[in-house]
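Dear colleague,

As promised, here are the two records you asked about, laid out in our usual form so they can be pasted straight into your sheet.

NAME FIELD: protein one
SEQUENCE, THEN STRUCTURE:
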Amino acid sequence: MKKVFIILLLLSVFIIGEAQTRKTAKRPLIELGPKASLYIGSLRFGLGAELLVNPLRNVGLRFDLTELSFGEDDTRFSFNLRDISLDGILYLQMQDITPYAFLGLGLAANENTTRVEFRGGLGFNYSITRGTDIFLEPGVIITHDSYAERTDVWFRLSAGGRFGLIK
């Protein structure tokens, strides 16, 4: 029991220390980002928006708010209140260009099917002004559709801007 208490105490000290250095971080606490995405698997193009929350200096969470995508098969509209999407982001600190790695999960369900997505990749933020970035993000998406009983692999290239809402 003492070991668990010591580990929790050390973790708390680390989180409080990160929160204190959070004041000097370059990224805003909450960011809104419009983006355009190109999907290669069967060719698709998407326009959407995302919300980023950066609680720690090197860690962020991303929620896809909405996306309208169209391509060879059909047109899809996803809205995060219905289709759940969450990515974890690990930032690497550099001067002007900030590389990051992301790993995430998405879930979309309706009366006919359930679609599960696993995604991951790398990205690059370039700071234009304090609180405004542009980004480029290549990644891979693995999608499993329970109704069609198939798994697809997509390559996604996203680009857009991120604007700080709350410092």
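NAME FIELD: protein two
SEQUENCE, THEN STRUCTURE:
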Amino acid sequence: MRAAFVLAYLIVRGFYFPYVVWGRYVPDMLELLALPLAQRKALSTAQLWTPFFLGSAFSFLQLYWGYLLVRQLQKMLAGPRDKAADKER
């Protein structure tokens, strides 16, 4: 079950969420920034950049959590550690 969760997490949060933020929002935001202020319904430049910065921060957080999940899965699949070998190191 853990492997299925990690796979689902990586697909949805590790790949799709950053794709939406960087691959879909940025082109739309740049198109809006090219319009005059009156045509973009008085949305300031800061109002358009804020979702990008927050989405980017959240995307990096999702990628970090995905990294932690993958490491946890690797430890689980490696099996129990030999404590005698650890003492010799």
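A couple of things worth noting about protein two: The helical segments are 2-34, 45-78, 83-88. The chain has one domain: 2-77.

Best,
R.
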